[in-house]
UniProtKB/TrEMBL annotation:
Annotated organism of origin: Ascodesmis nigricans
CDD domains: PP2Cc (cd00143)
Family designation: Belongs to the PP2C family.
Record key words, sorted: Hydrolase, Metal-binding, Protein phosphatase
Secretion signal, residue range per the UniProt entry: none
Gene Ontology molecular functions: metal ion binding; protein serine/threonine phosphatase activity
Name of protein: Protein serine/threonine phosphatase 2C
């Protein structure tokens, strides 16, 4: 008779059984593999620390019922006052929502990520903050840096999936590499007052960055032989939060990840390969496949609260938001005061004057497709991760990085979308749809359903909606009235169009 772990799990099994089954099954595979079976040990990437896709919150003890500690005898006043709970971000529907659709395509190349990233907080306390607040130790949720990202793959989902699974780890490990003290401090080569240890760290960072550029020049050549990268250590890239290392960490992380991806090199933070281990996208295979097809755009958002007592979505909290952007995915804020859309990103396309100037030596690669859309080589984007065959021409993973201070309740929500959404809906239409829904989760689902209903191209569509401090006032100004009639007309027109198609 088979034991429960020897049979396959089915839909009738509970989540608890499935989790125990998978854990036990992995152990059995490892044990059998050691005895010489064809079953192999789990690859190294399964043994890495999983992404922290939850946050912790301190709640009043009376808000949790029943309180299991009541059975253990008399409690202190501290125990009764607060209780720390873990909240999965994707289950917190009043704080975050995500929805994705493959459209009319047989596959979905979009991916997204949301969670808490392990880097030092980079937001400074507001000028009018009480001194005790500025000096107070950060609580877990107050010290958390939240991470949201959308990744739109093309030519397959290999690159977008790689970004989803690994970009946050590259950022975390680069932050540790650049900040051995784990303290975000302003660093400038001209600052003679810096301690000698910090000056040494600064020199180490400069060497790492020079080595990375040298690797790009020697491996790819072309565009990379003349390009100069501003890693954000000095000058205008030193942001107001007092942490010039954040732009440098993001710039280095994406360029390093991109080089590792197109050459199938092992990430610097992984241990050496084990003899006999099967080559994977993470382990690297220099003697086998050296490049991967396709590429991906990327837009990520980092949010850091400025005071330790409240999360970034609290109406009285001031936070710093950093945008790191490649390609044509979009990030949009909705202003609380008037309900208008405030875009955080601009597309990296061949028609962009900035991109045309950057790639002016390769004007022969600019062309138009059959629909009249301008392209660079065969790509609609001039910046992306992957696309190895176009790297020599200048298709780069150099991100646009910007910083914005979110004052208390200044913005209602944040939306991240792939071009399957932005190609159908304008920024204001997206914001107005969100205003009409009760939760970010419902809003994200409504946007993808609307795109499926009125869109003609049937592209993959992914939406992330993130609650901010002004969420409760999001519809006070117009309640989505600004584009409501337009959206009603588009629905009617789509219904007539598809109705005629069915009749014919």
């Amino acid at each position: 008779m088979m034991t429960p772990y020897q049979r396959a799990w089915g839909l009738r099994d509970s989540y608890s059984f499935i989790s125990r089954y998978l854990s036990r099954r992995q152990t059995l595979c490892a044990e059998v593999g050691l005895r010489g079976s064809r079953l192999q040990k789990p690859p190294i990437y399964q043994q890495r620390r999983w992404f922290r896709d939850y946050f912790t919150a301190v709640l009043p003890g009376s808000s949790l019922h029943p309180d299991p500690q009541l059975r253990k005898g008399k409690l202190s006043s501290t125990d009764r006052e607060t209780t720390t709970v873990r909240i999965p971000l994707r289950s917190a529907k009043h704080h975050f929502g995500v929805s994705t659709s493959r459209g009319t395509r047989p596959y979905n190349e979009d991916h997204s990520q949301a969670g808490v990233i392990d880097i030092p907080p980079f937001s400074s306390p507001p000028e009018n903050a009480p001194k005790e607040d500025a000096a107070a130790p950060m609580s877990d949720v107050g010290a958390s840096v939240f991470y949201y990202g959308v990744f739109d793959g093309h030519g397959g989902d290999t690159a977008s999936l790689y970004l989803k699974d690994n970009l946050h780890t590259y950022i975390e490990q680069t932050s540790r590499l650049f900040n051995p003290t784990s303290t975000p401090v302003p660093i400038s080569p001209t600052n003679a007052s810096l301690p000698e240890a910090l000056k040494a760290h600064h020199k180490d960072r400069q060497k790492l960055q020079k080595d990375l550029l040298h690797d790009w020049k020697s491996t790819v050549g072309g565009y990379w032989r003349r390009v100069k990268i501003d890693f954000g250590l000095t000058g205008s890239k030193c942001n107001s939060s007092g942490s010039p290392t954040i732009p440098s960490v993001l710039m280095y992380s994406l360029l390093k990840l991109d080089l590792d991806f197109i050459t199938n090199s092992r990430p610097f933070y992984l241990p050496p390969t084990v003899e006999g281990e099967e080559p994977t996208l993470l382990s690297g295979d220099p003697k086998g496949v050296t490049t991967f097809k396709g590429g991906s755009t990327s837009t990520i958002i980092l949010i850091s609260p400025s005071t330790p007592h409240h999360p970034y979505w609290h109406p009285e909290q001031t936070s710093t938001l950093i945008t790191c952007h490649l390609g044509d995915t979009r990030a949009i804020l909705c202003r609380t005061s008037d309900g208008t859309a405030h875009p955080l990103t601009l597309p990296h396309s061949p028609s962009s004057p900035t991109e045309s100037a950057r790639l002016r030596r390769y004007t022969h690669a600019f062309n138009h497709d059959s629909f009249g859309e301008e392209r660079f080589g065969f790509l609609a984007n001039t910046r992306s991760v992957g696309d190895a065959s176009q790297k020599r021409l200048g298709v780069s993973a150099e991100p646009d990085i910007s910083s914005l201070v979110l004052h208390p309740s200044e913005y209602s929500f944040l939306v991240l979308v792939t071009d399957g959404v932005s190609g159908v809906l304008g920024d204001q239409e997206i914001c107005d749809i969100v205003k009409e829904e009760d939760t970010p989760e419902k809003a994200a689902r409504e946007i993808t359903e609307f795109v499926e209903e009125v869109g003609e191209m049937g592209d993959n569509a992914t939406v992330l909606v993130v609650r901010l401090g002004g969420w409760e006032k999001r519809g006070a100004e117009d309640g989505g009235e600004r584009t409501r009639r337009l959206r009603m007309w588009r629905r009617e027109e789509a219904g007539e169009r598809y109705g005629r198609g069915r009749m014919n």
